[in-house]
């Protein structure tokens, strides 16, 4: 199985599955409860069809978009995901570099495994978002916001769908934890996945990555789900966020908005963007797909705030459908994580390149020369 054999999402996923130890693969691949929302995220794109136009002179197409004041060369960005150096030793470094090459934004997770300053430096030619969670430790929240400001991060992104941990049963079964530890069952898994282990031996002397956010976990080891429940503040309200928006005084978006009412409140408190997202199905199972909520929310607030969506994006046509319904851009998560795990930066670049190629081809087949020409006229629901 070589990188050149990977032509789509499913190929990269299969390659990642071969290379990664079971607990790590399942951490990426899994979601909450019965994983119904995870599946629906992708099938929701199949509820509607594209209606192309012809003979429009499409020898050149412009894939760029402007979102939250940032010009992106492509209508997608790399959504923040945790613990990337566990998937490949380059982790966030590889993703930041690949995003930079494609002229798009990289969202650094506050559960990241390189410092946000280093990621900012690597992707300095393109905008960077810093995703953070509202921790019970208010001092930590202030310190992280200050670091992001000092590092010159363009977009602050507060994730609001994770104030308690989603029920990720695959992680319960495998014992996946942060900081990452090997238990006996895990060791057996690692013995049968030597490529991953060798990668660490060669490059990191088998030092497993640590979190950049120096949270005091009392020396403990916990599941990601327990981390959310114990470290994040479920008492967070709109007033807390309004204060943060004022303090940041720049581009600020909420990640995990799903209702029209909340989208309107985000506008009221001065957010400049909202990300419709169910966290890749990893939090509330049974939650609606972002794509299914998109039209309603774009109609309600699309002229006052930039609407982005993520979840289930695997194809250029998914991106075009989202833009046609009113999204300014889409986020991708697993779409770049499997390639990262499979082949590091080369994998991420190949995957992002394929998505861009598909978007250019599909725009030509749709008869649109720029992303701004996509509209509801290009879509029909069944
Ligand atoms: C995530 N996601 C996420 N979101 C966030 O705000 N902070 C985080 O640290 C993480 N970590 C994370 C880890 C992994 C392994 C996955 C798969 C996802 C959610 C992510 O930003 C995005 O919302 C989803 O991944 C989008 O769904 P797809 O593209 O993976 O289907």
UniProtKB/TrEMBL annotation:
Annotated keywords: Flavoprotein, FMN, Oxidoreductase
PROSITE patterns named in the record: FMN_HYDROXY_ACID_DH_1, FMN_HYDROXY_ACID_DH_2
Catalytic-site annotation from UniProt: 279 (proton acceptor)
E.C. number(s) listed in UniProt: 1.1.2.3
Positions that bind FMN: 80-82, 109, 159, 255, 277, 333-334
Binding residues for glyoxylate: 27, 131, 133, 168, 279, 282
PANTHER family: 2-HYDROXYACID OXIDASE 1, S -2-HYDROXY-ACID OXIDASE-RELATED
Domain FMN hydroxy acid dehydrogenase as annotated: residue spans: 1-382
Protein name: L-lactate dehydrogenase [cytochrome]
One matching Pfam family: FMN_dh
Matching CDD domains: alpha_hydroxyacid_oxid_FMN
Record family assignment: Belongs to the FMN-dependent alpha-hydroxy acid dehydrogenase family.
InterPro entries on file: Aldolase_TIM, Alpha-hydoxy_acid_DH_FMN, FMN-dep_DH, FMN_HAD, FMN_hydac_DH_AS
Cofactor(s) required, per the database record: FMN
GO molecular function: FMN binding; L-lactate dehydrogenase (cytochrome) activity
Top enzyme class: oxidoreductase
């Amino acid at each position: 199985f070589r990188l050149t054999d990977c032509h789509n999402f499913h190929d990269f996923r299969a390659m990642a599955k071969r290379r990664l130890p079971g607990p790590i693969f399942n951490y990426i691949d899994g979601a909450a409860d019965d994983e119904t929302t995870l599946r629906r995220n992708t099938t929701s794109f199949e509820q509607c069809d594209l209606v192309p136009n012809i003979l429009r002179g499409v020898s050149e197409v412009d894939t760029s978009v402007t979102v939250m004041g940032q010009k992106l060369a492509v209508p997608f960005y790399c959504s923040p995901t945790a613990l990337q150096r566990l998937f490949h030793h380059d982790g966030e470094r590889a993703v930041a570099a690949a995003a930079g090459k494609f002229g798009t934004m990289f969202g650094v997770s506050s559960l990241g495994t390189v410092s946000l300053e280093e990621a900012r430096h690597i992707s300095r030619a393109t905008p960077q978002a810093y995703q953070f969670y509202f921790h019970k430790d208010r001092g930590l929240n202030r310190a992280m916001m200050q670091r992001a400001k000092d590092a010159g991060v363009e977009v602050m992104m507060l994730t609001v769908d994770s104030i308690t941990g989603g029920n990720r049963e695959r992680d319960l079964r495998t014992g996946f934890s942060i900081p990452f530890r090997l238990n006996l069952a895990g060791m057996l898994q690692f013995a049968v996945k030597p490529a991953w282990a060798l990668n660490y031996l060669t490059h990191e002397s088998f030092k497993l990555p640590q979190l950049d956010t120096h949270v005091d976990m009392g020396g403990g080891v916990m599941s990601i789900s327990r981390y959310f429940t114990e470290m994040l503040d479920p008492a967070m309200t709109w007033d807390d966020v309004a204060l943060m928006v004022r303090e940041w005084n720049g581009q600020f978006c909420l990640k995990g908005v799903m209702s029209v009412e909340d989208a309107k409140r985000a506008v009221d408190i001065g957010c400049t963007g909202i990300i419709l997202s169910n966290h890749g199905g990893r939090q509330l199972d049974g939650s609606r797909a972002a794509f299914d909520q998109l039209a309603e929310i774009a109609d309600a607030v699309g002229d006052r705030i930039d609407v982005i969506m993520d979840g289930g994006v695997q194809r250029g046509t998914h991106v075009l459908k989202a833009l046609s319904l009113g999204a300014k851009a889409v986020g991708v998560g697993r779409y770049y994580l499997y390639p990262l795990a499979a082949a590091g930066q080369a994998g991420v670049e190949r995957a992002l390149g394929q998505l861009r190629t598909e978007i250019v081809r599909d725009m030509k087949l749709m008869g649109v020369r720029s992303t701004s020409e996509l509209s509801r006229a290009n879509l029909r629901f069944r």
